[in-house]
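Action item from last week, closing it out:
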Amino acid sequence: MTAKKLEMNGITIEFPGVKALNGVDFTAETGRIHALIGANGAGKSTLMKVLSGAYNHYTGDISLDGERVEIKTPADAQRLGIQTVYQEVDTAIIPSLTVAENIMLNQTVQSMENRHWINWKHLFRQAEEILAGMNLTIPVKKLAGQLTLAEKQLVLIARAISSDCSFLILDEPTAPLSQTETSQLFRIARDLKHKGVGIIFISHRMPEIFELCDELTVMRNGELVVKKTIPEVDSHQVIEYMLGRKLEDQFPERVSTAGETLLEAEELSDGDKVRNATLHVKAGEIVGIAGLVGAGKTELCKVLFGASPSTSGTVKLSGRSLKLTSPHAAVKSGLALVPEERRKEGVLVSESVASNLTAVNLKKFTKFWSFIDSRAEKTTALKYIKALGIKTSSETAKVGNLSGGNQQKVAIGRWLIADADVYIFDEPTKGVDVGAKRDIFELIAQLAKQGKGVIYASSELSEIIGITNRVYVLYDGGPVKELETLATTEEELLFYSTGGR
């Protein structure tokens, strides 16, 4: 099979106040898996949105096999065999349609536009054949809204290859997946590669890139830095290319300043995912909640914050019993939650950076008759933008236009202004590059030094080991082991995370 070559030459694109891409060259071939990586804000997602037709105001050339092509809409890209599966799968899946209808969506829409009858029996059979070709057994008549997140992602990949697909763009595909689900995704990616599909793989996870990919392109500040084959580099070199400097120790110095007990939870349950959870957090302490995807970490965080109702158990803050009937009650009591799904729950993507940073504590920024003091809001926003190193054109820029790492800094910053007693972080580095991770770790360490209590929930066991003082290991909704972090290892955490006793 003759390989097809995709070339992007001199791609430049600007948004108000920022040049997102500056003369970028990028090449990929069918039958190979090509990693596109860079720190948050490097321009990799913007480059792929140009290729997928989402952005059309770029300059530069795109060619397939040496022939110049025009890509100004997603339909243009799809006609050329370029398909994309974005990180936010829930926005691309239609939950009220069946699996088959979601897979065959493009063909169904074309039939309706041309006023052709749809042969539903044939459509369901086609969907079954596509899934069988991927060695998947997802029921085609099941409603897509009933699928797991991993199954939805696989359905979107099936949709992509249901049409003529030469190049498949996967944007942070493993961020929400468990280890088993990631292995299944990698098997499918390798199968597609052997069938002649070129895969462009965007990820921040170095082990995945070195396990799956054939070559990589590194971007920084909207420009191409280097293109290498995987055997030519190691992970340390790649990180240096991404950051433009050597990466110092990833985690800040661990300081144990544990004081009085701040937060206590006893036999906490939600009747579903959280079962008899007992834990405590002291002032100046970072307490890890470790566990695999599905262990109940997010659910526990939400129960502690009043975002999900508890069916039994008690929560105390500084010895005072709390009735956490809502997040509002939790905030008034002195609790803060930085949630896992930042775009859905952590930030207001259509609002400005300033509005997001001050949203949690608007009382500080209101004058008489509840009018917002815009000058005070701006002054505070600029202070925290500088302190947190948020990369934005101005405090008025929409948060939805920031990179993932900068969105996460905004999500954290809004709670710093609120000045809570206990901070709960749920997967705070999800989809964040190594440079932004280091910044987030520093912020969390500073909170502990100020005497705040911190809960750090993560399935990244290396992060649990690197930043926490104590750790509770969750399995099947409840803590099965409490450990001193300096006296444990990733292997021991994994042992208990998988049900070991």
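Closing note: The chain has three domains: 5-92+164-243, 94-146, 261-497.
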